[in-house]
Design goal:
Growth Hormone, Chain: A, 2 domains, 21 helices, Drug resistance transporter, EmrB/QacA subfamily, transmembrane
Length: about 475
């Protein structure tokens, strides 16, 4: 038995605190700079294209490298990978906080994504082997899922506070405090584990999936120039082709980067797809919500951050109920109903107007979105890793995280394309509040449709008895 499972109960719960802190860091960093973008853009002279890439670079590097990060965690050791990722993430955050040009900031965000790709799968794999089964596992994943679900909104609030009272640069520098806590907590409470046996790196798999995902996301980011643009089509086609080659490679190598059995399972595959849609909403749609709060309603950075609070509060309030329902009725009903509630909230947001009252048009919509996301995030993490062998724990957790980040990258690019089509290529300074609001409304309509699609995915793919979807048996653990 792993030493992590022999650890005293209080040590395991402290390990959960450290692991959840890590998840908070990597999720909130997807959005913490979003609310500071107007001031960062003015400070560094960012173009509109660079402004989008401050968000996209992080999610793209994160999502594209997560599979490799998962395998590194399995082979090198999850605790060791966790500590390396923490140090690198802190260094990248420091570089970004001191950036003097737009491209330095974009590069720093990309480097943050690279080290987050080591941190995130290592943390989730550590959680999986520390809480292998039973009620403690459900509680641990509920805490972890709540942090994952609210981290993006917490990032908006913290970013608003730091931008208002200090400087936008502290949206990056604040990570140094999180990193220090993570390094100390990791050294004290985390136990090393790694995959057993002959472990070889799948070099060609790593190259094809990284370039494939990168090309795909970059292609979507170019869609704001038009879906028929030759460069857009070329990168989307290249991305799909490279991902096809990746699948072909994975079926033929002895130590695949992504064992196809991890994603071939219908239920697990459905969970990954739903996670991708959720990422598109929490990373992409919330960015344009902050733009509406600041550019149309005239809120300051802190006020705009506070205005997003109904979303994480609703998610945290609903989490205990979702956790209880998960053990009673299983994950499928939650994943069918949750996205529909979130879709209703997004549809209400689509009706915003330039002079509409916040407590009438926005706050109720955010409550609905938060409740819906609470029902979505609580079962997702458990479902994505259900029945996964210890040898694949790192890579399975990487796919779960990658789905959210790549979904966020693609979602942001698609929403940007919808925005560009709505405003007809005009610069933001040339637009009236009515034109801006109309553009944001179309984004929320598309987001609402995506959440309905997530519900349909749950109906079609998350099927089977509750006992099969939520196994109670122990996961085999290999630890050194």
């Amino acid at each position: 038995m792993s030493s992590s499972l022999r650890a005293r109960p209080q040590t395991r719960w402290w390990a959960l605190v450290v692991i959840s802190l890590t998840q908070l860091i990597v999720v909130l960093d997807g959005t913490i700079v979003s609310i500071a973008l107007p001031r960062a853009q003015a400070s560094l002279g960012l173009s509109d294209g660079q402004r989008q890439w401050v968000v996209t670079a992080y999610a793209l590097a994160f999502g594209a490298l997560l599979l490799l990060g998962g395998r590194i965690a399995d082979y090198v050791g999850r605790k060791r990978t966790f500590m390396i990722g923490m140090v690198g993430f802190g260094a990248a955050s420091l570089f970004g906080g001191l950036a003097q040009t737009g491209w330095e900031l974009v590069l720093a965000r990309g480097l943050q994504g690279v080290f987050a790709a080591l941190l995130a799968p290592a943390a989730l794999a550590l959680l999986t082997v520390t809480f292998p089964s039973g009620r403690d596992r459900n509680t641990a994943f509920a805490v972890f899922g709540t942090v994952a679900g609210t981290g993006a909104a917490v990032g908006l609030l913290l970013g608003g506070f730091l931008t208002e009272f200090t400087d936008w640069r502290w949206c990056l520098l604040v990570n140094l405090f999180f990193v220090a806590a993570g390094l100390v907590g990791g050294a004290l409470f985390l136990t090393e584990s790694k995959a057993e046996g002959d472990n070889r790196y799948d070099v060609w798999g790593a190259i094809t999936v990284t370039l494939g995902l990168g090309s795909l996301v970059y292609g979507f980011s170019l869609a704001e120039n038009g879906w028929g643009d030759p460069l857009t089509i070329a990168f989307l086609a290249l991305g799909l082709a490279l991902l096809g080659v990746f699948v072909w490679v994975e079926g033929r190598v002895s130590q695949p980067l992504l064992p196809l059995r991890v994603v071939a399972d219908r239920v697990r595959g459905g969970a990954f797809l739903i996670q991708g849609v959720a990422g598109a909403i929490m990373i992409g749609a919330t960015l344009y919500l902050t733009f509406h709060l600041q550019f149309v309603l005239g809120m300051g950075a802190l006020q705009a951050g506070v205005a997003t609070l109904p979303l994480p509060i609703a998610t945290m309030v609903i989490a205990p109920l979702a956790t209880k329902l998960l053990t009673v009725i299983g994950p499928r009903p939650l994943l069918v109903v949750g996205p529909l509630i979130a879709a209703a909230g997004l549809f209400v947001l689509a009706g915003i107007s330039p002079d509409g009252a916040y407590f009438v048009q926005i706050a109720p919509a955010l409550v609905l979105l938060g409740v819906g996301m609470g029902f979505v995030f609580i079962p997702l993490q458990n479902l994505a890793l259900s029945g996964v062998a210890s040898h694949d724990a790192g890579v399975a957790s990487a796919v779960a995280n990658s789905a959210m980040q790549i979904g966020g990258s693609i979602g942001l690019s698609v929403f940007t394309a919808v925005y560009a089509a709505s405003v007809g290529g005009h610069a933001q300074g040339e637009l009236t509040p009515i034109q801006l609001t109309d553009a944001y409304g179309w984004i929320f309509i598309v987001a609402s449709i995506l959440m309905v699609c997530a519900s349909i995915i749950a109906v079609l793919m998350v099927r089977g008895p509750k006992e099969e979807l939520m196994p109670t048996g122990q996961v085999a653990v290999g630890a050194h």
